[in-house]
Write a structure and sequence with these properties.
Elements lengths: L21 H18 L3 H7 L5 H9 L18 H14 L1 H21 L2 H12 L5 E4 L9 H4 L3 E5 L2 E11 L7 E8 L5 E7 L5 E5 L12 E11 L10 H36 L1 E2 L2 E2 L4 H29 L5 H25 L11 H13 L4 H13 L6
Parallel strand pairs: 1-4, 2-4
Antiparallel strand pairs: 2-3, 3-7, 4-5, 6-7, 8-9
Helix pairs in contact: 1-4, 4-5, 4-8, 5-6, 5-8, 8-9, 8-10, 8-11, 9-10, 10-11, 10-12
Keywords: FAD, Flavoprotein, Oxidoreductase
Pfam family, one: Acyl-CoA_dh_M
Family: Belongs to the acyl-CoA dehydrogenase family.
Length: 397
């Protein structure tokens, strides 16, 4: 399917959207329109306040965009391809990375944890409400003292007493946690030293979530410090198909590619802002777009975008074919986020002094890129995963 030029983004130089089916492309266009109409007018004020605009939850609920990757379970639609899921993440991040992160935490990490880690009864109990966004999910893995080494260093514990578990510990940087209805909490079982997953409901005794203030990146995402003090969770709320951190890693492997698509979206949004500004802004009696050095910056941005888009399209095909591996998503996350850093810097440069003013949007993209560069595995950690795959030697500590 060849995409109409009027429908494509300015950054889609090789018409990657044409890789979608007709029906999938209609969903992508619906995502684009939703972000333009419902999200774009709110984000700068929300970013300034450092608060998530909760009115968006109702609008997302009515959009028909939630729960698309999950067949059945109240979604009332067939599962879509990984390519469409990725392009939707890109499309959201093209407008705002914070809102895309909110959506990714709920629709990706939290829902996929239930889908992959829960048994049939648990999927039927939790996924319909999540697919309808009647209940908001969060995913609590990272801890105050353990980020990259959380697999070995997890300090949050779970103790079983009959049909009840008691959770004690702390989590940090947990997106959506301040308003989530249910949080997937990962804890180490003191009996067998294996990591297990638990769904903790809003208002559970001993559970507190405090918003992390003073952030300079993804300010709309309400990341929280979570404290768990004697939180009681019934056995029926333990994810039955999670037996070790290896199972958790499978969830992260699947969702890490979504972060790479987010990084692409940030690149696309920043480039399109810079391109439009260069055409409109005049200096020395002509538009900035008419200067060689500005064109050089724009073409370097477009080159990074096009190369990364091609990489992610192939990654999505590997996922759809069921043959992709951990190192595939790790290479994409490491490479695309590094190129994103270059693009947002070049795009901001085109704005000159105006590039640090939120009114021009580009400052938000420049700042938000830093969080995406770091979460879901730093560049260094993902490099070690790929390095082990290509050399056969583990360089992890």
């Amino acid at each position: 399917m060849t995409t109409d030029l009027d429908e494509r983004t300015a950054a889609d130089f090789y018409d990657f959207e044409s890789a979608l089916s007709h029906e999938e492309h209609k969903i992508l266009l619906r995502t684009r329109e939703f972000m333009r109409q419902e999200v774009a007018p709110l984000v700068n004020e929300a970013w300034s306040r450092g608060r998530f605009p909760t009115e968006l939850i109702t609008r997302f609920r009515e959009s028909g965009l939630v729960g698309l990757p999950y067949e059945g379970y109240g979604a009332h639609r067939p599962a879509v391809s990984h390519l469409l899921s990725g392009m939707m993440a890109m499309e959201m991040s093209r407008v705002d990375a914070s809102v895309a992160t909110f959506f990714g935490v709920h629709n990706g990490l939290a829902m996929y944890a239930v889908q992959a880690g829960g048994d049939q009864e648990q999927r039927e109990r939790w996924l319909p409400g999540m697919a309808a966004m009647e209940t908001i999910g969060a995913f609590a893995l990272t801890e105050p003292l353990d980020g990259s080494d959380v697999a070995a260093g997890m300090r949050t514990t779970a103790r079983r007493d009959g049909d009840t578990w008691t959770l004690d510990g702390a989590k940090r940087w947990i997106g959506n946690a301040t308003f989530a209805d249910q949080v997937v909490v990962w804890a180490r079982d003191v009996a067998d030293d294996q990591v297990k997953g638990f769904v903790v409901g809003k208002g559970a005794a001993g559970f507190t979530a405090e918003r992390i203030a003073h952030k300079t990146s993804l300010r709309i995402v309400e990341n929280a410090d979570i404290t768990l003090t004697g939180v009681r969770v019934p056995e029926r709320d333990r994810l039955q198909n999670i037996g070790s951190f290896r199972d958790v890693a499978e969830i992260l492997r699947a969702t890490r590619s979504g972060v790479a698509w987010q990084a692409l979206g940030v690149m696309v949004g920043a480039y399109e802002l810079a391109l439009a500004y260069a055409k409109e802004r005049e200096q020395f009696g002509r538009p900035l777009a008419g200067f060689q050095l500005v064109q050089d910056l724009l073409v370097k941005c477009l080159g990074n975008i096009t190369a990364c888009w091609g990489m992610l399209l192939r990654l999505a095909r590997l996922q759809d074919d069921g043959v992709f591996k951990d190192e595939h998503s790790s290479l994409a996350k490491a490479h695309v986020t590094a190129r994103m850093r270059e693009v947002v810097a070049w795009a901001r440069e085109i704005f000159g002094g105006n590039g640090i003013v939120l009114d021009y949007d580009i400052a938000r993209f420049f700042a938000d890129a830093e969080a995406i560069y770091s979460f879901e595995g730093t560049r260094e950690m993902n490099t070690l995963i790929v390095g082990k795959a290509v050399t056969g030697q583990s360089a992890f500590v």
